[in-house]
Every structure is written in C-alpha cells, then in structure tokens.
Specification:
The protein is mainly α. The protein has one domain. Helix content is 61%, strand content 2%. The protein is built from 13 helices and 2 strands; from the N terminus they run αααααααβαβααααα. The chain has helices at residues 7-12, 28-34, 38-61, 71-93, 95-101, 112-122, 127-157, 164-168, 184-187, 190-193, 205-225, 242-245, 249-259; strands spanning 159-160, 182-183. Strands 1-2 form a two-stranded antiparallel ribbon. α6 (112-122) packs antiparallel against α7 (127-157). The longest helix has 31 residues, at 127-157. 34% of the residues are buried. Mean pLDDT is 81; it is low at 247-260.
C-alpha cells in the first residue's frame, strides 16, 4: 500500500527543493533553447505543466492495469497523446508561440521531466498526489524558464515581455490595453547616448549556459538553507529512468572502463 502523501508537500517540493531543472537537472535542452524571452519561457512552461498534470493523472489511474513489462511504452503513448493535443491547441490559438517554440513543443514527448515523474511517482501513487506532483513540478519548471527568460531578454536584448500580445491573443485583441512589452533602448534614448548596448551574448547558447549556472547556484544556496543536499551531476544510476534503460551498477562500471 502506497504511503499517504501530504498535498502541500507534494505540490511545493517541485518549486525549490526538487526543482526539475535547477535541482534535478532534467529538461535542460528545451530550457536553454527557448528561454531567450519571458514569453517563450512561460509558453513552454505552461505547455509542459498541462502535459505533466494530465499524463500523471491518467498514468496514476491506469497504474494497476498497465503490465509492468510494457509500462514505459504505455507511458510514452499517454504522454504523446497529451502533447499532440497541446500542440494542436497552440497551433490553432497561439500560432506565434508555436512558431517561436518550434520543434521543442512536440519534443515535450521525450522531456525527461515528464517521463521521469511518470516512472518515479505517478505509476506508484494516488491520482490526487500524482496531480499535485505534476502541478508542482510544472510550476517549478515554468518558474525556472521564466527566470532564465527574464535575465536573458533584459540583458541580451534590452527588452521585457516582448511578444506578450501574441501569447494573449487567445483572449482577444488589445488585452491589457495593448501592452506588448517594453524596449528600454527605444523608451530611454539616453541609454544609447551613453554607449550602453545589450549584451547579445546572453541570447546565444553560451549566455544561456551562464545564466543556467547562476540560477543553479542560487537555487542550491536556498535549498541548502532549508536542509537539502546540494544538486550534483552524478552517474546514470541516479536518473529516475535508470531501471528502465538498464543502466545498472555493473553496466555503468563497464561504460566507465570502456571510456577510460
């Protein structure tokens, strides 16, 4: 019988203590690729959150029905179904966001966060706990993407919340009075007069890695203050999918010897 979970803890753990990006180091490819602006980061985070919650609920409902030998293909089928639905909705109602996210929207199917939570949590716990786990992890992922998007957009482009109207177009035209972000260099010409320019490096992959490292350090410090261990890059054995892909201790050691 599964241990009873505290709803509050199941939701809050994914925000700081077990943040999927900054603590568990999952889903970093999409995070680094799309977070050149706050709007893109929020759009990706919201999409992943919807898929996480829905797939966790369905997988938890079917956890006693799905045979153990085919659980991974079954999980992927469930996840792919929800990703397809989300992609269709985004294409229909927010085409600008779909264009910005590009290939990374359908690639949510293979996002380690979603499959990892299905294998490590939803397949073993109740529907409510799984839904809260998915929501908490989704909020943590969205927060990480938004934080990276804000930093990279501000420093790299000198703008803030550009493209907001494209994200809100589903609610109609001129939402929030038509506010579509701020271009600080256009709004404050004095910035150019003093030869201040955006650091476009932050919009490049190297700037993304730098921002990522800074946020990891900050999150580690906060988590350590709460009594949590520091996040570390470890071998395959610590991955939630280690058992599924067959990376047992002996195979890890063999892989290390082969590369030595």
């Amino acid at each position: 019988m599964a241990e009873k979970k505290s709803p509050g803890k199941e939701f809050s753990k994914g925000i700081i203590k077990q943040n999927p990006v900054l603590r568990l180091m999952l889903g970093t490819c999409a995070t680094l690729a799309v977070t050149t602006s706050l709007v893109n980061g929020f759009g990706m985070g919201l999409s992943v959150t919807v898929v996480l919650v829905c797939s966790n609920i369905v997988i938890s409902l079917l956890r006693k029905v799905i045979p153990n030998k085919v659980r991974i293909p079954a999980y992927i089928l469930v996840i792919a179904s929800f990703v397809t639905l989300v992609q269709m909705v985004v294409k229909a109602y927010v085409p600008a966001l779909d264009k910005s996210l590009g290939i990374f929207l359908p690639l949510i199917v293979v996002n380690c966060i979603i499959l990892g939570r299905a294998e490590a949590f939803a397949g073993k716990n109740s529907v409510l706990a799984s839904a809260l786990d998915g929501l908490g992890m989704g909020v943590g992922f969205t927060a990480a993407c938004c934080a990276m998007g804000i930093i990279r957009e501000l420093i790299g482009g000198g703008t803030f919340m550009t493209g907001l109207q494209s994200l809100l177009s589903v609610f109609g035209e001129h939402v929030l009075g038509g506010f579509d972000g701020v271009d600080f260099f256009a709004k404050f010409p004095i910035l150019e007069k003093i030869s201040l320019q955006p650091m476009t490096l932050f919009l490049l992959p190297s700037g993304g890695f730098f921002t990522f490292g800074i946020l990891i350090a900050i999150t580690n410090r906060i988590a350590e203050g709460k009594g949590e261990k520091k996040a570390e890059l470890r071998d395959c054995m610590h991955c939630p999918m280690a058992a599924a892909c067959g990376m047992q201790p002996e195979s890890c050691e063999e892989a290390k010897e082969e590369t030595a």
